[in-house]
TrEMBL record:
This is FAD-binding oxidoreductase. Residues 49-230 form the FAD-binding PCMH-type domain. Belongs to the FAD-binding oxidoreductase/transferase type 4 family. It holds the Pfam family FAD-oxidase_C.
Amino acid sequence: MTATSAASAAPTASPETFLQACRAAISAGYVLTEDADTVGYLTDQRGRYTGKALAVLKPGSTEEVAAIVKLCHQHLVPIVPQGGNTGLVLGSVPDTKGNAVLLSLTRLNRIRTVDPVNNTMTVEAGCILQNIQQAAAAEQRLFPLSLAAEGSCTIGGNLSTNAGGTGVLRYGNTRELCLGVEVVTAQGDVMSSLRGLRKDNTGYDLRDLFIGAEGTLGIITAAVIKLFPQPKAQVTALAALRTPDHALRLLSLAQARCGATLTGFELMSDFCLQLVAKHFPPHRAPFDKPHAQYVLLELSDSESEAHAADIFEAVIGEALEQELIDDAVIATSIAQSKSLWQLREHISMAQAHEGKNIKHDISVPISRIGEFIRVTDVLVQETSPGCRMVTFGHLGDGNLHYNVSPPEGVKDTDFIAQQEKINRTVHDSVDKFGGSISAEHGLGALKREEILRYKSPVELQLMRTIKQALDPHSLMNPGKVI
């Protein structure tokens, strides 16, 4: 039986028999079937899509997850794992067939252990990212993963999508922040590698199979994550400049002068900050006049705030002398630093308030970002004349949120009708520049077909081979990724 055909095979018992077995496994109160109880789980984060499910199941332990998965394997019921449901590519909601269960991991929310000497923390998949950050801080440690949804996203979802965020430049994606995982396989077995080792060269790295797999190979239920010493100071600056090419030159200068203390380097176009000022009036760029581009820089220093400020002042001074930037401000307090970061963090919300938009989470080689923006902006304007580009992102790791807003006066519905054409223009350009059409959000269902245009046949076949080997009945998050 092939992976593609097995998901449609007839179950071995009636849905009610299956649900009764689920109630026995995790108690009836955690088996949700009423529409009023399930709709929040079945609707995607952007509110554009609502799927259907036999039930929403909320196990409270790894053992209960394993029991549910064994029942699903026995009855051939597909499973859609979900963390905080903050994804943007329809990866954590079921389709409209109604034959799957949604497995919410939010009750698996314990921090099992903190080992400050080993600089590790063992956490369950349903732990909210912000809670993990706070638990690390309580031990004078840092967990550096940081993204806009950190108040509601979960570490299991972060691992399943290999989330990026603002600290990738220094600390890497979530994959680099994980030392081991506990996984429930498609057959309901538990694989645990929660040893917290930085060196373990004993065969295939099974951990990396499940990180970034979006729940299509198994369900991550816990992980050992890396901690770092808390920096003595974090200093933020905002630089105004003319072009993304100037930003790239500023990046090279900052990396040369700051080394590993440079932990944030975010590019934002002027239109991004125009939207923020329009929809969140208190938040404005602290300059007398607008500039074409802005870069938000952050230093995390192990010595002192004064030391970090001295480094920043030297970098900013040199950048001004070289005419890489036109102006800059350095935050002199925590409040000012937060205010600068809020300019960046409010962009997505400002876009949503402005209306419908077509989002692209892409990456290209860092050295080619300036050229990519110049070339692709022209192509998008040819495809949709008058559209407004909302370009921002993590310049230090090559990840752009290359978003397109409709022209003034164009109805949202008319603009969204152009989505396929605009996506093709952007994604084809990304491919020509040697990039990726998904930098940190994953593929989910939204880009599952799109990736077929850009992955090589060999890559796709290897992915299908892995999927078939680990999930031969295609029960794990069907219709996602591959």
